[in-house]
Write a structure and sequence with these properties.
The complex is a heterodimer. By secondary structure, chain A is mainly α. Chain A is 54% helix and 3% strand. Chain B contains 7 helices and 7 strands. Classes of the chains: A mainly alpha, B alpha+beta. Chains A and B meet through helix 11 and helix 15 of A and helix 5 and helix 6 of B.
Chain lengths: 431, 133
Protein backbone atom coordinates (compact mmCIF):
# COMPACT_ATOMS: atom_id res chain seq x y z
CA UNK A 1 0.00 0.00 0.00
CA UNK A 2 1.36 3.45 -0.88
CA UNK A 3 0.87 5.79 2.04
CA UNK A 4 -0.01 9.40 1.25
CA UNK A 5 2.84 11.60 2.41
CA UNK A 6 1.49 13.54 5.38
CA UNK A 7 1.83 17.32 5.24
CA UNK A 8 3.41 18.98 8.27
CA UNK A 9 0.71 19.38 10.87
CA UNK A 10 0.80 21.19 14.15
CA UNK A 11 -1.71 18.88 15.78
CA UNK A 12 -0.87 15.89 17.97
CA UNK A 13 -1.95 12.53 16.52
CA UNK A 14 -5.67 11.81 16.51
CA UNK A 15 -6.88 9.32 19.10
CA UNK A 16 -9.79 8.25 16.92
CA UNK A 17 -10.31 4.58 16.09
CA UNK A 18 -9.65 5.51 12.46
CA UNK A 19 -6.71 7.81 13.27
CA UNK A 20 -4.74 6.58 10.24
CA UNK A 21 -7.62 7.49 7.94
CA UNK A 22 -8.12 10.86 9.68
CA UNK A 23 -4.45 11.67 9.09
CA UNK A 24 -4.84 10.61 5.47
CA UNK A 25 -7.82 12.95 5.05
CA UNK A 26 -5.83 15.74 6.70
CA UNK A 27 -3.10 15.18 4.13
CA UNK A 28 -5.58 15.58 1.29
CA UNK A 29 -6.20 11.88 0.75
CA UNK A 30 -9.34 9.76 0.68
CA UNK A 31 -10.86 7.12 2.94
CA UNK A 32 -9.84 4.64 0.26
CA UNK A 33 -6.08 3.88 0.34
CA UNK A 34 -4.08 5.23 -2.58
CA UNK A 35 -3.00 2.14 -4.52
CA UNK A 36 -2.85 1.57 -8.29
CA UNK A 37 -5.21 -1.39 -7.83
CA UNK A 38 -7.81 0.74 -6.07
CA UNK A 39 -7.47 3.45 -8.70
CA UNK A 40 -7.95 0.97 -11.54
CA UNK A 41 -11.02 -0.49 -9.84
CA UNK A 42 -12.77 2.76 -9.04
CA UNK A 43 -12.19 4.41 -12.40
CA UNK A 44 -13.25 1.29 -14.27
CA UNK A 45 -16.44 1.07 -12.26
CA UNK A 46 -17.19 4.78 -12.67
CA UNK A 47 -17.18 4.22 -16.42
CA UNK A 48 -19.38 1.11 -16.09
CA UNK A 49 -21.74 3.10 -13.84
CA UNK A 50 -21.89 6.16 -16.09
CA UNK A 51 -23.39 4.28 -19.05
CA UNK A 52 -26.55 3.06 -17.26
CA UNK A 53 -26.61 6.38 -15.40
CA UNK A 54 -26.91 8.06 -18.78
CA UNK A 55 -30.15 6.11 -19.15
CA UNK A 56 -31.29 6.65 -15.54
CA UNK A 57 -31.19 10.45 -15.64
CA UNK A 58 -32.94 10.65 -19.00
CA UNK A 59 -35.66 8.22 -17.93
CA UNK A 60 -36.14 9.85 -14.53
CA UNK A 61 -36.72 13.21 -16.22
CA UNK A 62 -39.01 11.59 -18.81
CA UNK A 63 -41.17 10.11 -16.03
CA UNK A 64 -41.18 13.38 -14.05
CA UNK A 65 -41.92 15.57 -17.06
CA UNK A 66 -44.05 13.47 -19.42
CA UNK A 67 -45.37 10.23 -17.89
CA UNK A 68 -46.37 12.24 -14.83
CA UNK A 69 -49.55 10.80 -13.26
CA UNK A 70 -50.34 8.18 -15.90
CA UNK A 71 -52.36 5.67 -13.83
CA UNK A 72 -51.11 2.73 -15.91
CA UNK A 73 -47.49 3.62 -16.71
CA UNK A 74 -46.67 0.26 -18.34
CA UNK A 75 -44.34 1.89 -20.85
CA UNK A 76 -42.60 4.38 -18.60
CA UNK A 77 -39.21 2.70 -19.21
CA UNK A 78 -39.62 2.95 -23.00
CA UNK A 79 -37.63 6.09 -23.48
CA UNK A 80 -38.68 8.10 -26.56
CA UNK A 81 -36.06 9.22 -29.05
CA UNK A 82 -36.18 12.88 -28.04
CA UNK A 83 -35.05 11.98 -24.52
CA UNK A 84 -32.16 9.92 -25.94
CA UNK A 85 -31.25 12.90 -28.11
CA UNK A 86 -31.70 15.36 -25.27
CA UNK A 87 -28.49 17.25 -24.70
CA UNK A 88 -26.74 16.72 -21.42
CA UNK A 89 -25.98 20.19 -20.02
CA UNK A 90 -22.44 19.13 -19.06
CA UNK A 91 -21.22 17.32 -22.20
CA UNK A 92 -21.02 18.18 -25.87
CA UNK A 93 -20.28 21.41 -27.66
CA UNK A 94 -23.32 23.36 -26.46
CA UNK A 95 -22.80 22.44 -22.79
CA UNK A 96 -23.40 25.02 -20.07
CA UNK A 97 -20.09 23.85 -18.64
CA UNK A 98 -18.31 21.13 -20.56
CA UNK A 99 -17.22 18.48 -18.09
CA UNK A 100 -17.02 15.58 -20.52
CA UNK A 101 -15.38 15.99 -23.91
CA UNK A 102 -17.84 13.48 -25.46
CA UNK A 103 -21.23 13.97 -27.03
CA UNK A 104 -24.27 15.42 -25.28
CA UNK A 105 -26.69 12.78 -26.58
CA UNK A 106 -27.07 9.22 -25.22
CA UNK A 107 -23.80 7.27 -24.98
CA UNK A 108 -23.08 4.97 -27.97
CA UNK A 109 -22.59 1.90 -25.73
CA UNK A 110 -25.97 2.57 -24.15
CA UNK A 111 -27.68 2.83 -27.54
CA UNK A 112 -26.08 -0.41 -28.70
CA UNK A 113 -27.18 -2.22 -25.56
CA UNK A 114 -30.71 -0.86 -25.85
CA UNK A 115 -30.91 -2.21 -29.37
CA UNK A 116 -29.45 -5.69 -28.93
CA UNK A 117 -29.30 -6.29 -25.20
CA UNK A 118 -27.29 -8.99 -23.49
CA UNK A 119 -28.43 -11.56 -26.04
CA UNK A 120 -26.77 -9.41 -28.77
CA UNK A 121 -29.76 -9.81 -31.05
CA UNK A 122 -32.08 -7.20 -32.39
CA UNK A 123 -35.47 -8.37 -31.08
CA UNK A 124 -38.68 -6.39 -30.54
CA UNK A 125 -38.24 -3.95 -27.65
CA UNK A 126 -41.04 -5.57 -25.65
CA UNK A 127 -39.25 -8.93 -25.66
CA UNK A 128 -36.02 -7.39 -24.33
CA UNK A 129 -38.10 -5.62 -21.70
CA UNK A 130 -40.04 -8.67 -20.51
CA UNK A 131 -36.89 -10.82 -20.49
CA UNK A 132 -35.35 -8.10 -18.31
CA UNK A 133 -32.61 -7.71 -20.88
CA UNK A 134 -32.50 -3.98 -20.39
CA UNK A 135 -31.32 -1.19 -18.11
CA UNK A 136 -32.79 -1.81 -14.66
CA UNK A 137 -34.59 1.46 -13.99
CA UNK A 138 -35.96 -0.12 -10.84
CA UNK A 139 -32.58 0.63 -9.25
CA UNK A 140 -32.88 4.33 -10.08
CA UNK A 141 -36.41 4.36 -8.70
CA UNK A 142 -35.23 2.68 -5.50
CA UNK A 143 -32.70 5.50 -5.01
CA UNK A 144 -35.41 8.08 -5.65
CA UNK A 145 -37.71 6.35 -3.15
CA UNK A 146 -34.96 6.32 -0.53
CA UNK A 147 -34.71 10.10 -0.88
CA UNK A 148 -38.48 10.51 -0.85
CA UNK A 149 -39.04 8.16 2.06
CA UNK A 150 -36.43 9.70 4.33
CA UNK A 151 -37.10 13.34 3.39
CA UNK A 152 -36.00 16.15 5.78
CA UNK A 153 -32.32 15.73 4.97
CA UNK A 154 -31.47 19.42 4.69
CA UNK A 155 -31.89 21.95 1.91
CA UNK A 156 -34.97 23.92 0.95
CA UNK A 157 -36.40 21.55 -1.69
CA UNK A 158 -37.98 19.13 0.72
CA UNK A 159 -39.74 21.66 3.00
CA UNK A 160 -41.05 23.37 -0.16
CA UNK A 161 -43.02 20.21 -1.03
CA UNK A 162 -45.25 20.89 1.99
CA UNK A 163 -46.00 24.53 1.19
CA UNK A 164 -49.29 25.89 -0.08
CA UNK A 165 -47.46 27.30 -3.08
CA UNK A 166 -46.27 23.82 -4.09
CA UNK A 167 -49.73 22.30 -3.60
CA UNK A 168 -51.27 25.04 -5.75
CA UNK A 169 -48.68 24.43 -8.50
CA UNK A 170 -49.29 20.68 -8.36
CA UNK A 171 -53.06 21.23 -8.39
CA UNK A 172 -52.85 23.22 -11.63
CA UNK A 173 -50.82 20.48 -13.29
CA UNK A 174 -53.08 17.66 -12.03
CA UNK A 175 -56.21 19.41 -13.32
CA UNK A 176 -54.56 20.07 -16.68
CA UNK A 177 -53.26 16.51 -16.97
CA UNK A 178 -56.66 14.94 -16.31
CA UNK A 179 -58.67 17.51 -18.25
CA UNK A 180 -61.61 15.72 -19.90
CA UNK A 181 -61.16 12.65 -17.68
CA UNK A 182 -64.06 12.80 -15.19
CA UNK A 183 -63.07 9.53 -13.50
CA UNK A 184 -59.58 10.69 -12.54
CA UNK A 185 -60.78 14.19 -11.70
CA UNK A 186 -63.44 12.63 -9.47
CA UNK A 187 -60.83 10.50 -7.72
CA UNK A 188 -58.68 13.61 -7.27
CA UNK A 189 -61.62 15.35 -5.62
CA UNK A 190 -62.14 12.41 -3.28
CA UNK A 191 -58.46 11.77 -2.47
CA UNK A 192 -56.56 14.98 -3.15
CA UNK A 193 -53.69 14.20 -0.77
CA UNK A 194 -52.93 10.94 -2.53
CA UNK A 195 -52.47 12.75 -5.83
CA UNK A 196 -50.35 15.51 -4.29
CA UNK A 197 -48.17 12.87 -2.66
CA UNK A 198 -47.66 11.23 -6.06
CA UNK A 199 -46.59 14.59 -7.48
CA UNK A 200 -44.12 15.00 -4.60
CA UNK A 201 -42.63 11.66 -5.56
CA UNK A 202 -42.41 12.84 -9.18
CA UNK A 203 -40.58 15.95 -7.96
CA UNK A 204 -38.01 13.59 -6.49
CA UNK A 205 -37.78 11.81 -9.85
CA UNK A 206 -36.84 15.19 -11.31
CA UNK A 207 -34.44 15.95 -8.46
CA UNK A 208 -32.52 12.70 -8.92
CA UNK A 209 -32.57 12.97 -12.72
CA UNK A 210 -31.02 16.44 -12.55
CA UNK A 211 -28.46 15.18 -10.03
CA UNK A 212 -27.33 12.25 -12.18
CA UNK A 213 -27.29 14.32 -15.37
CA UNK A 214 -24.17 15.89 -13.86
CA UNK A 215 -22.57 12.74 -12.49
CA UNK A 216 -22.59 10.75 -15.76
CA UNK A 217 -20.28 13.19 -17.64
CA UNK A 218 -18.10 13.55 -14.53
CA UNK A 219 -17.48 9.79 -14.48
CA UNK A 220 -16.98 9.58 -18.26
CA UNK A 221 -14.37 12.31 -18.12
CA UNK A 222 -12.55 10.64 -15.22
CA UNK A 223 -12.39 7.44 -17.22
CA UNK A 224 -10.97 9.27 -20.25
CA UNK A 225 -8.39 11.09 -18.10
CA UNK A 226 -7.31 7.79 -16.54
CA UNK A 227 -6.95 6.18 -19.96
CA UNK A 228 -4.71 9.09 -21.00
CA UNK A 229 -2.60 8.75 -17.86
CA UNK A 230 -3.78 12.09 -16.48
CA UNK A 231 -5.34 10.69 -13.32
CA UNK A 232 -2.70 8.56 -11.64
CA UNK A 233 -3.65 8.42 -7.94
CA UNK A 234 -6.76 8.02 -5.79
CA UNK A 235 -6.34 11.57 -4.32
CA UNK A 236 -6.23 12.96 -7.88
CA UNK A 237 -9.45 11.14 -8.68
CA UNK A 238 -11.01 12.50 -5.51
CA UNK A 239 -9.83 16.06 -6.28
CA UNK A 240 -11.47 15.86 -9.69
CA UNK A 241 -14.73 15.00 -7.92
CA UNK A 242 -14.27 17.82 -5.37
CA UNK A 243 -13.74 20.37 -8.14
CA UNK A 244 -16.76 18.98 -9.98
CA UNK A 245 -18.92 19.33 -6.88
CA UNK A 246 -18.02 23.02 -6.62
CA UNK A 247 -18.30 23.72 -10.33
CA UNK A 248 -21.85 22.39 -10.52
CA UNK A 249 -23.02 23.40 -7.04
CA UNK A 250 -25.20 26.20 -8.44
CA UNK A 251 -27.05 24.11 -11.02
CA UNK A 252 -30.83 24.68 -10.56
CA UNK A 253 -32.99 21.86 -9.20
CA UNK A 254 -36.59 22.15 -10.39
CA UNK A 255 -39.60 20.16 -11.58
CA UNK A 256 -41.31 21.02 -14.85
CA UNK A 257 -44.17 19.03 -16.37
CA UNK A 258 -45.19 19.17 -20.04
CA UNK A 259 -48.90 18.65 -20.66
CA UNK A 260 -50.26 19.05 -24.19
CA UNK A 261 -47.32 21.20 -25.16
CA UNK A 262 -47.56 23.51 -22.19
CA UNK A 263 -44.96 23.70 -19.42
CA UNK A 264 -46.24 23.63 -15.83
CA UNK A 265 -43.62 24.75 -13.34
CA UNK A 266 -44.34 22.69 -10.24
CA UNK A 267 -40.99 23.74 -8.78
CA UNK A 268 -39.71 26.73 -10.78
CA UNK A 269 -36.00 27.35 -11.26
CA UNK A 270 -36.58 30.75 -9.69
CA UNK A 271 -36.94 29.13 -6.24
CA UNK A 272 -33.12 29.12 -6.24
CA UNK A 273 -32.79 25.44 -5.33
CA UNK A 274 -29.25 24.23 -5.99
CA UNK A 275 -27.62 20.99 -7.05
CA UNK A 276 -25.34 20.83 -4.00
CA UNK A 277 -27.78 21.60 -1.21
CA UNK A 278 -31.05 20.32 -2.60
CA UNK A 279 -29.90 17.23 -4.54
CA UNK A 280 -26.33 16.06 -3.91
CA UNK A 281 -26.23 16.21 -0.11
CA UNK A 282 -29.69 14.63 0.40
CA UNK A 283 -28.76 11.96 -2.17
CA UNK A 284 -25.55 11.04 -0.35
CA UNK A 285 -27.38 10.91 2.96
CA UNK A 286 -30.27 8.82 1.64
CA UNK A 287 -28.44 6.46 -0.71
CA UNK A 288 -24.89 6.13 0.63
CA UNK A 289 -25.76 6.09 4.32
CA UNK A 290 -29.39 5.36 5.05
CA UNK A 291 -31.69 3.69 2.47
CA UNK A 292 -33.75 0.95 4.13
CA UNK A 293 -33.43 -2.77 4.88
CA UNK A 294 -33.83 -4.69 1.63
CA UNK A 295 -36.39 -7.43 1.73
CA UNK A 296 -34.89 -10.73 0.77
CA UNK A 297 -31.38 -10.24 2.13
CA UNK A 298 -32.05 -10.66 5.83
CA UNK A 299 -35.04 -10.76 8.15
CA UNK A 300 -35.21 -7.87 10.56
CA UNK A 301 -37.34 -7.77 13.69
CA UNK A 302 -38.31 -4.17 14.34
CA UNK A 303 -39.85 -5.03 17.73
CA UNK A 304 -36.50 -6.44 18.84
CA UNK A 305 -34.96 -3.11 17.82
CA UNK A 306 -33.02 -4.62 14.94
CA UNK A 307 -34.17 -1.65 12.89
CA UNK A 308 -33.27 1.77 14.37
CA UNK A 309 -36.10 3.80 15.84
CA UNK A 310 -34.89 7.00 14.19
CA UNK A 311 -34.63 7.23 10.44
CA UNK A 312 -31.39 9.18 10.68
CA UNK A 313 -29.77 6.14 12.30
CA UNK A 314 -30.56 3.93 9.31
CA UNK A 315 -27.43 2.32 7.92
CA UNK A 316 -28.32 0.21 4.91
CA UNK A 317 -26.60 2.24 2.21
CA UNK A 318 -23.71 1.23 -0.03
CA UNK A 319 -21.13 2.21 2.62
CA UNK A 320 -22.51 -0.54 4.86
CA UNK A 321 -23.70 -3.10 2.32
CA UNK A 322 -22.84 -6.75 2.60
CA UNK A 323 -22.47 -7.24 -1.13
CA UNK A 324 -24.90 -9.95 -2.04
CA UNK A 325 -24.99 -12.36 -4.98
CA UNK A 326 -27.51 -11.82 -7.72
CA UNK A 327 -30.39 -14.21 -7.86
CA UNK A 328 -32.69 -12.78 -5.25
CA UNK A 329 -35.45 -10.87 -6.96
CA UNK A 330 -35.86 -7.16 -6.60
CA UNK A 331 -32.86 -6.26 -4.48
CA UNK A 332 -31.90 -2.88 -5.89
CA UNK A 333 -28.08 -2.99 -5.61
CA UNK A 334 -27.95 -6.29 -7.45
CA UNK A 335 -29.91 -4.68 -10.28
CA UNK A 336 -27.23 -2.02 -10.51
CA UNK A 337 -24.48 -4.63 -10.51
CA UNK A 338 -26.22 -6.36 -13.41
CA UNK A 339 -26.39 -3.03 -15.26
CA UNK A 340 -22.71 -2.26 -14.68
CA UNK A 341 -21.64 -5.76 -15.76
CA UNK A 342 -22.61 -4.90 -19.34
CA UNK A 343 -20.29 -1.90 -19.58
CA UNK A 344 -17.10 -2.91 -17.76
CA UNK A 345 -13.89 -1.72 -19.43
CA UNK A 346 -11.70 -4.63 -20.65
CA UNK A 347 -9.04 -4.07 -17.98
CA UNK A 348 -11.61 -4.62 -15.24
CA UNK A 349 -13.06 -7.76 -16.88
CA UNK A 350 -9.54 -9.16 -17.00
CA UNK A 351 -8.88 -8.13 -13.39
CA UNK A 352 -12.01 -9.88 -12.10
CA UNK A 353 -11.17 -13.04 -14.01
CA UNK A 354 -7.88 -13.28 -12.12
CA UNK A 355 -9.72 -13.65 -8.83
CA UNK A 356 -12.99 -15.11 -10.02
CA UNK A 357 -14.67 -17.97 -8.23
CA UNK A 358 -17.03 -18.54 -11.17
CA UNK A 359 -19.06 -16.36 -13.52
CA UNK A 360 -21.51 -14.94 -10.96
CA UNK A 361 -18.59 -13.96 -8.74
CA UNK A 362 -17.78 -11.10 -11.13
CA UNK A 363 -20.99 -9.49 -9.97
CA UNK A 364 -19.93 -9.66 -6.33
CA UNK A 365 -16.45 -8.42 -7.09
CA UNK A 366 -17.76 -5.49 -9.06
CA UNK A 367 -20.19 -4.80 -6.21
CA UNK A 368 -17.25 -4.59 -3.81
CA UNK A 369 -15.42 -2.37 -6.31
CA UNK A 370 -18.48 -0.18 -6.46
CA UNK A 371 -18.40 0.06 -2.68
CA UNK A 372 -14.74 1.15 -2.82
CA UNK A 373 -15.59 3.72 -5.49
CA UNK A 374 -18.40 5.16 -3.40
CA UNK A 375 -16.03 5.50 -0.44
CA UNK A 376 -13.98 7.66 -2.80
CA UNK A 377 -17.06 9.71 -3.75
CA UNK A 378 -18.00 10.08 -0.09
CA UNK A 379 -14.43 11.21 0.65
CA UNK A 380 -14.83 13.84 -2.07
CA UNK A 381 -18.07 15.04 -0.47
CA UNK A 382 -16.38 15.21 2.94
CA UNK A 383 -13.40 17.14 1.51
CA UNK A 384 -15.72 19.45 -0.45
CA UNK A 385 -17.73 20.22 2.69
CA UNK A 386 -14.52 20.82 4.61
CA UNK A 387 -13.34 23.18 1.87
CA UNK A 388 -16.69 25.00 1.73
CA UNK A 389 -17.51 25.21 5.42
CA UNK A 390 -14.18 24.95 7.23
CA UNK A 391 -10.54 25.63 6.50
CA UNK A 392 -7.71 24.77 4.09
CA UNK A 393 -5.68 21.68 4.98
CA UNK A 394 -2.53 23.82 5.23
CA UNK A 395 -4.14 26.54 7.36
CA UNK A 396 -1.48 27.97 9.69
CA UNK A 397 -3.97 28.46 12.57
CA UNK A 398 -4.01 25.35 14.85
CA UNK A 399 -7.58 26.17 15.96
CA UNK A 400 -8.67 25.90 12.37
CA UNK A 401 -6.84 22.61 11.93
CA UNK A 402 -8.53 21.36 15.10
CA UNK A 403 -11.92 22.32 13.65
CA UNK A 404 -11.08 20.39 10.48
CA UNK A 405 -10.09 17.39 12.56
CA UNK A 406 -13.27 17.50 14.64
CA UNK A 407 -15.23 17.55 11.38
CA UNK A 408 -13.34 14.57 9.91
CA UNK A 409 -13.72 12.63 13.17
CA UNK A 410 -17.45 13.35 13.32
CA UNK A 411 -17.83 12.12 9.75
CA UNK A 412 -15.93 8.90 10.45
CA UNK A 413 -17.94 8.30 13.63
CA UNK A 414 -20.77 7.29 11.33
CA UNK A 415 -18.58 4.51 9.99
CA UNK A 416 -17.46 2.96 13.27
CA UNK A 417 -20.48 0.66 13.55
CA UNK A 418 -19.66 -2.98 12.74
CA UNK A 419 -21.68 -3.05 9.52
CA UNK A 420 -19.58 -0.28 7.94
CA UNK A 421 -17.11 -1.49 5.31
CA UNK A 422 -14.50 1.19 5.95
CA UNK A 423 -12.24 -1.34 7.70
CA UNK A 424 -12.68 -3.87 4.88
CA UNK A 425 -11.77 -1.51 2.05
CA UNK A 426 -8.41 -0.76 3.69
CA UNK A 427 -7.29 -4.16 2.45
CA UNK A 428 -6.97 -5.29 -1.15
CA UNK A 429 -8.08 -8.80 -0.17
CA UNK A 430 -11.66 -7.70 0.39
CA UNK A 431 -13.22 -8.64 -2.90
CA UNK B 1 -21.21 59.54 2.32
CA UNK B 2 -21.36 56.83 -0.39
CA UNK B 3 -23.74 53.86 -0.27
CA UNK B 4 -22.68 50.18 -0.09
CA UNK B 5 -22.61 49.74 -3.87
CA UNK B 6 -20.62 52.94 -4.46
CA UNK B 7 -17.98 51.85 -1.97
CA UNK B 8 -17.67 48.40 -3.56
CA UNK B 9 -17.47 49.84 -7.08
CA UNK B 10 -14.84 52.35 -5.92
CA UNK B 11 -12.54 49.64 -4.61
CA UNK B 12 -10.20 47.52 -6.72
CA UNK B 13 -10.74 44.47 -4.52
CA UNK B 14 -14.40 43.82 -5.30
CA UNK B 15 -14.67 43.52 -9.07
CA UNK B 16 -16.02 39.93 -8.94
CA UNK B 17 -18.50 40.80 -6.20
CA UNK B 18 -19.70 43.88 -8.08
CA UNK B 19 -20.10 41.89 -11.30
CA UNK B 20 -22.08 39.22 -9.44
CA UNK B 21 -24.30 41.78 -7.70
CA UNK B 22 -24.99 43.44 -11.05
CA UNK B 23 -25.75 40.10 -12.74
CA UNK B 24 -28.12 39.16 -9.93
CA UNK B 25 -29.94 42.49 -10.19
CA UNK B 26 -29.26 43.33 -6.57
CA UNK B 27 -27.81 46.81 -7.19
CA UNK B 28 -31.11 48.61 -6.53
CA UNK B 29 -31.65 46.69 -3.29
CA UNK B 30 -28.17 47.48 -2.01
CA UNK B 31 -28.66 51.14 -2.91
CA UNK B 32 -31.94 51.33 -0.96
CA UNK B 33 -31.97 52.92 2.52
CA UNK B 34 -31.56 49.54 4.23
CA UNK B 35 -29.67 49.54 6.47
CA UNK B 36 -27.67 46.39 5.69
CA UNK B 37 -24.60 44.69 7.00
CA UNK B 38 -22.66 43.25 4.06
CA UNK B 39 -19.93 40.64 4.36
CA UNK B 40 -17.95 41.36 1.21
CA UNK B 41 -15.54 38.69 -0.13
CA UNK B 42 -12.56 40.07 -2.03
CA UNK B 43 -11.58 39.06 -5.56
CA UNK B 44 -8.93 36.81 -4.02
CA UNK B 45 -11.66 35.08 -1.98
CA UNK B 46 -13.69 34.35 -5.12
CA UNK B 47 -10.54 33.15 -6.89
CA UNK B 48 -10.17 30.39 -4.27
CA UNK B 49 -13.34 28.70 -5.54
CA UNK B 50 -12.63 25.87 -8.01
CA UNK B 51 -12.93 26.63 -11.74
CA UNK B 52 -16.48 26.69 -13.04
CA UNK B 53 -18.14 27.57 -9.71
CA UNK B 54 -18.75 31.21 -10.61
CA UNK B 55 -19.56 30.40 -14.24
CA UNK B 56 -22.43 28.09 -13.20
CA UNK B 57 -23.75 30.64 -10.72
CA UNK B 58 -23.65 33.46 -13.30
CA UNK B 59 -25.73 31.24 -15.61
CA UNK B 60 -28.34 30.76 -12.89
CA UNK B 61 -29.38 34.04 -11.37
CA UNK B 62 -31.79 32.82 -8.61
CA UNK B 63 -29.06 30.49 -7.33
CA UNK B 64 -26.45 33.28 -7.54
CA UNK B 65 -28.79 35.59 -5.61
CA UNK B 66 -29.12 33.00 -2.91
CA UNK B 67 -25.36 32.85 -2.38
CA UNK B 68 -25.07 36.64 -2.45
CA UNK B 69 -27.94 37.24 -0.02
CA UNK B 70 -26.23 34.82 2.36
CA UNK B 71 -23.63 37.60 2.71
CA UNK B 72 -26.15 40.21 3.81
CA UNK B 73 -28.00 40.67 7.08
CA UNK B 74 -30.52 43.40 7.96
CA UNK B 75 -29.40 46.23 10.25
CA UNK B 76 -26.13 48.07 10.68
CA UNK B 77 -23.99 45.79 12.81
CA UNK B 78 -20.47 46.85 13.73
CA UNK B 79 -17.69 44.49 14.70
CA UNK B 80 -18.51 45.12 18.38
CA UNK B 81 -22.22 44.40 17.78
CA UNK B 82 -21.45 41.17 15.90
CA UNK B 83 -18.90 39.88 18.39
CA UNK B 84 -21.52 40.08 21.12
CA UNK B 85 -23.68 37.64 19.13
CA UNK B 86 -23.40 33.90 18.40
CA UNK B 87 -24.91 34.22 14.97
CA UNK B 88 -27.00 36.47 12.72
CA UNK B 89 -29.68 35.44 10.26
CA UNK B 90 -28.82 36.23 6.64
CA UNK B 91 -31.28 37.64 4.11
CA UNK B 92 -31.05 34.19 2.45
CA UNK B 93 -32.56 32.73 5.61
CA UNK B 94 -29.67 30.59 6.90
CA UNK B 95 -27.74 31.62 10.01
CA UNK B 96 -24.20 33.03 9.80
CA UNK B 97 -22.21 31.99 12.89
CA UNK B 98 -19.86 34.54 14.47
CA UNK B 99 -16.78 32.78 15.84
CA UNK B 100 -15.57 33.35 19.38
CA UNK B 101 -11.92 33.55 18.47
CA UNK B 102 -9.13 36.05 19.03
CA UNK B 103 -9.55 37.74 15.67
CA UNK B 104 -12.80 38.72 13.98
CA UNK B 105 -14.08 35.62 12.18
CA UNK B 106 -17.42 35.16 10.49
CA UNK B 107 -18.22 31.51 9.86
CA UNK B 108 -15.01 30.14 8.29
CA UNK B 109 -13.87 33.51 6.94
CA UNK B 110 -11.58 36.02 8.55
CA UNK B 111 -12.60 39.67 8.44
CA UNK B 112 -9.64 41.46 6.88
CA UNK B 113 -11.17 44.94 7.15
CA UNK B 114 -14.05 45.72 9.50
CA UNK B 115 -16.54 48.55 10.01
CA UNK B 116 -16.43 50.30 6.64
CA UNK B 117 -19.30 52.72 7.06
CA UNK B 118 -21.73 53.47 4.24
CA UNK B 119 -24.83 55.66 3.98
CA UNK B 120 -27.10 52.66 4.09
CA UNK B 121 -25.17 50.21 6.23
CA UNK B 122 -21.77 48.78 6.94
CA UNK B 123 -19.27 46.51 5.16
CA UNK B 124 -16.93 43.89 6.61
CA UNK B 125 -14.40 42.52 4.13
CA UNK B 126 -13.88 38.73 4.06
CA UNK B 127 -11.00 36.56 2.85
CA UNK B 128 -13.36 33.70 1.87
CA UNK B 129 -16.73 33.36 0.18
CA UNK B 130 -19.36 32.18 2.66
CA UNK B 131 -21.35 29.07 1.73
CA UNK B 132 -24.45 27.86 3.52
CA UNK B 133 -24.35 24.74 5.63
Amino acid sequence: MNAVTPTPTKLPPSQHEFAEIIHRLEAGGAMLPDTPENLKQIIGIYKAYAVPMDFYWRNLLYIAERVFLNPLPAFKYFLPQDYLDRHNHYAGEDADLRIWRGEATAHPELLEFMEKGEVKRKLPKLLHHLWHDRINMEFAEACMRAMFWHRNMGGQFDPYLDTEEYVANADRAIKAYFKGNPVMLGLYKLFPDMFIEQVRQLSYYSNLGLFWEVMAPVFFEMSDLYDEGKITTVPEAMSFLVNGIFAIAGRPIYHHVYIRGECYEIIPKSKGFMWLYEAALPYVEAVFYRTSPFRGTKSYNAQAKQVPENQDDFHYGILYADVFPVGSAGIPPTLLMQDMLHFLPPYLVEYYQQYCRGGDDTLIQLGVTFQRSMYCVTSAVIQALRQALLYPLDDPNPEHLQANRAFFEAQLNRLTRPEARLRDIQSQDYR
Amino acid sequence: MADIVDIAVGSEDFSTLVAAVQAAGLVETLKSPGPFTVFAPTDAAFAQLPAGTIQTLLQNIPQLSRILTFHVTPGKLTQADLQALDSVVSVEGSPIPIQKSEGFEVKNATVVAADIEADNGIIHVLDRVLLMG
